[in-house]
Design a protein that fits this description.
Elements: E1 7-10, E2 12-16, E3 19-23, E4 36-41, E5 49-54, E6 59-65, E7 68-73, E8 78-83, E9 88-92, E10 97-101, E11 108-113, E12 122-123, H1 126-133
Antiparallel strand pairs: 1-9, 2-3, 4-11, 5-10, 5-12, 6-9, 6-11, 7-8, 7-10
Bound molecules: dTDP-4-keto-6-deoxyglucose (T46).
Length: 136
């Protein structure tokens, strides 16, 4: 599998006396076409979610309210990213093992995905993750 890298991008925002509007479009900030949208909210204190990578699904994560952290591991580099703004979006490549944690009580984590839901696209076993992506 070829390596690609997750990264933070800034979303364009338009602010005026009425407030703010942020916009995301296919193949612009998002390097893929959206086929699925879901959001994670009302997360209880101390909860950690994720614990998987993907075979093909690319995703973009943005806290449209509140904040959370995302732990990323591409088998070589391990990083923790803070999502704390509705204009800060994490482009999450399939080859990153990821865990979401430290959700604020008001956190709404919006996720845009390149593919429809398929449980077979998940790598939930860390040893399998290393077999597939280790050393990239
Ligand atoms: C990811 C991170 C960021 C569905 O039926 N359809 C869906 O589209 C999704 C996303 C989930 N589900 C079901 C499957 C499980 O029974 O919802 C339940 C919770 O999903 P999961 O345990 O996978 O949730 P997270 O927070 O661990 O992971 C989710 C996404 O599944 C995953 O793709 O990268 O958010």
């Amino acid at each position: 599998m070829s390596a690609s890298y997750s990264r933070i991008e800034e979303i364009s925002e338009f602010g005026d006396e009425r407030g703010f509007l942020a916009v995301l479009e296919n193949n612009r900030v998002l390097p893929f076409e959206i086929n699925r949208v879901f959001y994670i909210y009302k997360t209880l204190p101390g909860v950690r979610r994720g614990f998987h990578a993907h075979y093909k699904t690319r995703q973009a994560l943005v806290c449209v309210s509140g904040s959370c952290k995302v732990y990323l591991d591409n088998s070589i580099r391990k990083t923790d990213i803070l999502l704390d703004s509705p204009t800060k979006i994490l482009i999450l490549e399939p080859n990153d093992w990821h865990e979401m944690y430290d959700f604020s009580t008001d956190c709404v984590l919006l996720v845009l995905a390149s593919h429809l839901y398929d449980s077979e696209d998940y790598i939930r076993d860390y040893d399998r993750f290393l077999e597939v992506y280790g050393g990239e």
